[in-house]
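Incident log, support desk, overnight shift.

02:14 A customer reports that sequence design results differ from what the structure should imply. Their input is reproduced verbatim below. On-call engineer (initials T.W.) acknowledged and began investigating.
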């Protein structure tokens, strides 16, 4: 048993548990920054442990927690989570992720080149999200490093479940910080147009949107044109600015 794992076990039920959980999770891989958050089903995430670089911290406590988190591939994965998951960000991101405005206007700006995330179901719809990142210029995480990180998942999950039994939720939900849908009828959009907006903001290409919704590429173009007209935007960048303006 490693020293980090021993500390994790001894911290169960105590206030030191989140710090110990993050340390135990990251002991098998080299990383430049790390964080532990709790993703809530109906409110903004709670940052519990922050071991980020200054450049990341500003974005995290700014646009990210104000609503951009709803576009995160890991947040989207957490909403469908049935069991613990360990993955690199590109494993859970859509094919067009690096061309999305979210990537260009948020992810690329924080100086992160790669990220491993560990998602652990907690209680009441909460998900513990542990992230490890490497800065631009550093090598990306290898498959072997991902496996080494994933090997920690069973004990991390068991420790989290026991901690919650003894001490309750790891973090309280943020009052009044409800995560709104990306788009809804209040924006003058139809249900189908809202679906298209969600997929576009996630980073899906027009072809991927068509495949996901089982409609033609031409139908996607029509929806996109109508969406831009209704929202008063003229581009993907404009759509992302609209999204930022309507959060909160």
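02:41 Re-run completed on a clean worker. Output:
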């Amino acid at each position: 048993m490693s020293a980090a794992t021993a500390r994790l076990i001894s911290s169960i039920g105590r206030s030191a548990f989140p710090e110990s959980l993050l340390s135990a999770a990251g002991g098998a891989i080299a990383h430049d920054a790390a964080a532990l958050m709790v993703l809530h089903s109906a409110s903004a995430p709670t940052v519990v442990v922050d071991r980020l670089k200054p450049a990341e911290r500003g974005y995290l406590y700014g646009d990210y927690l104000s609503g951009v988190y709803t576009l995160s591939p890991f947040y989207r994965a957490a909403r469908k989570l049935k069991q613990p998951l360990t993955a690199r960000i590109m494993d859970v991101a859509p094919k067009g992720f690096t061309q999305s405005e979210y990537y260009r206007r948020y992810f690329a700006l924080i100086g992160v080149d790669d990220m491993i995330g560990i998602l652990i179901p907690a209680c009441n719809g909460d998900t513990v999200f542990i992230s490890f990142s490497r800065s631009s210029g550093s090598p990306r995480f290898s498959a072997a490093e991902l496996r080494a990180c994933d090997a920690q998942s069973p004990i991390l999950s068991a420790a989290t479940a026991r901690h919650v039994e003894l001490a309750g939720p790891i973090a309280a939900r943020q009052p009044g910080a409800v995560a709104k849908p990306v788009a809804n009828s209040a924006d003058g959009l139809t249900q189908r147009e809202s679906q298209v907006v969600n997929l576009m903001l996630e980073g899906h290409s027009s072809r991927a949107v068509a495949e996901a919704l089982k409609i033609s590429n031409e139908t996607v173009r029509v929806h996109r044109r109508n969406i831009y007209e209704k929202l008063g935007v003229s581009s993907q960048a404009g759509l992302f600015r609209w999204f930022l303006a309507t959060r909160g």
